[in-house]
Amino acid sequence: ARYWDRFFRQRGQRPFEWYGAFPELCPVLHKYVRPRDKVLVVGCGSSELSEQMYDMGMCEDIVNIDVSDAVIRQMQERSRSKRPKMSYLLMDMLQMEFPDAHFQVVLDKGTLDAILTDEEEGTLAKVDKMFAEISRVLQVGGRYLCVSLAQAHVLKKAVKYFSHEGWVVRVHQVAGSRDNQQFVLPVFVYVMTKFRKIPGSAPQILEICPEEQDKPMRVESAEQLVAAVKDRQYYALLCSQLSKTPCGEQVSLDLCNKESGRPRYTLHVVDSPSMKPSRDNHFAIFIIPQGRETEWLFGTEEGRRQLATSAGFGRLVTVALHREQHYEGMAGIQAELSGKVMELAPPGLPARQQVPFLSVGGDIGVRTVRHCDTSPLSGEYVVEDVKGDGTCYFRRLVFLRNRNVVQSEARLLAPTPLPGQKKRRKDKRKPTPAEPSADIDKSYLCCEHHKAMVAGLCLLGGSDPLPGDNAGSGRLCGGLPLFVHDYFLQAHVAVVEIDPSMLEVATRWFGFSQGDRMRVHVSDGLDYVAKLAAEAQAQYDAIMFDVDSKDLTVGMSCPPPAFVEKPFLQKVKTILKPEGVFVLNLVCRDAQLKESVLATLREVFPLLYTRHIEGEVNEILFCQPSPEGRRDPRELGARARTLERALRQPGRPWDSSYVLADMLQAVKIL
What we know:
The protein is an alpha/beta fold.
């Protein structure tokens, strides 16, 4: 009490508002304070909150208490003549003199925050006493409204105490004024509604109301409620930082669906400090078409940086749309996001500046989910058709445990009518989700590393540019085994796939079929190679590994570490013909681990070529069992051109952008 007496004497007649101005608190208070309620304000200090509630007609029967005699006398003097129905009393809220169930509302503005400064035993005991007194003087159905900055230990203490007592706990975020914010952190109001505690009653009810919506969201535990508040505090800090200085690194955040709480938009904030500012190029929003968020331009930091530079804006916010959500076109997205993205505006944005929404072709793209299921090995996955540039459509397989990576992709051929067949309006019908909408273009290789892997087959010895036997492991739904089967007409292809669900997906949705020259072995690639090595030697002209790792904690996502251990690589060498080639897709971000893998490969294979895929982590390794097969770059180019001529036969489609010799220009010998 002596501390607060000294504080208020030094401050004089000036009101003290720690945080939470009345205009910001008013919308929340109106929901829970009725004109005829009897209201108790604990730790009132010199705040104008009670006076403003009285003057606005929100409520008149207001009792204010505080332990500071100086502030009580000051506030009595200030309101005696103007507010006759409101009173100020010198009283300790830990020992209140009011009878039980005397008030409908207890209002606390910063008092709990001021008391609960730590989690020492004495402090917690004092807070328990405060809560017990508030509970005693409140009627059943009454509300304890606590205005707070919601530090984690403060919120957790209040929630656990009152939910354990059987009260309903709801947390409101207060909408702050962006023009005049004393605190960067947002202000919250805890609303605890008193119910009689009944043994064995229904589970606790915990809810949060974000500032932009009225409908409360239910959460399951105090920990989830604290985490939800932390998310909003982090967002407020982020917005404050972005409004003051350009961000050196790209910032990403998810905006979630109000109903489900699941991510609806993923935003990346990209600043271009070198961009010369003008009135019209400060800020823009770029909507990534559905299904294209994994493309290099939109899905990588460097790609987004180039996009921002080419768009010509100092700050560009890219917006990715999620497959589980429904969107009402560009206009609907713009209406939904306009208010929120302005919170991410850069410093120096002119007042009332119109912020443009950009996209590719002016629309939000097309994404159609064809199939979704769960595999015991691969987890949840979806097969979806997405629209690319122009009129092209692509079919993609995505594992939802890593939803930003396209596991496999095929290009769809537009359906063509039979000769002499005319389209009739009544024949037009949309394909059902159970059937593919078009045939698969088997000439399409979706990945640069797949193109490099095929180009590497020109390393095979002998004069015949087309190999006879080929084994592959991994990514059955991708175009690589189909391409090898359809273009290397003498090849017999053995594909190894560990997940039987993927064989079904590949057959049903990606045009895959087995035959005399293409067989699938559902097996672990490690076991299959070991079995072949034990049975016979020198069986294959080419062996190709494109196997992703399920262990995301390792710095190598392709292949799993066991596939590049020396004993296993020796088995691979055993089943490879002396003039054959082993092709490996290596994706390794750990430099030390990568050097170790390369050293092991050199121990087993005397001749090792490498081709780094530009703009990606992928590195394609071409390994040969004999150093005599070494070829210089000029010879490699000639062999690649010979192989391409053999593959490009009349009547067979060919992707004109795919030049085998170009894929080998950057090959190095290790």
